[in-house]
Amino acid sequence: MATNTVHNMHHNNRSVAEVLADFKEELKEFTSTRIQMLRAEMTEKTQAWKTAAPTLVIGSALLWISLLLFTGMLVSVIAWAFAGRPYAALVAFAIVFVVYALAGGVAVMYGIRTLKASGVAPARTLKVLKQDQIWLQTEAKTQV
Q: What span, in angstroms and rounded, lies between the C-alpha atoms of 111 and 116?
């Protein structure tokens, strides 16, 4: 785009229609390039999700089952430690509940903070578009 701008400055005898036609072609090329960049980045992100999703589902199911088994074991051990006391099982379940609730709350807060920090927007494309906007503003000021 910059090459054509320099070329246009050296050929002031061109008609307005020619200048507008060149501008239209440059704008089409510019838009096409940015759309291709956005598509490539979004395809890359989608492919990563497609690859990770089945593994995440299987891993989550196995972790859930292991958590249930661990919880049963933990409650049994705590109830055994309180054996002979009234409400031993109830106390065991309450202790496990409190520990899990605290750990879960911390994990959720960390996950939310991580998602907010990384975002889901196509960062590289937005950065290039911002740079393009600054360049276009600079070019518009120098052409006026």
A: 9
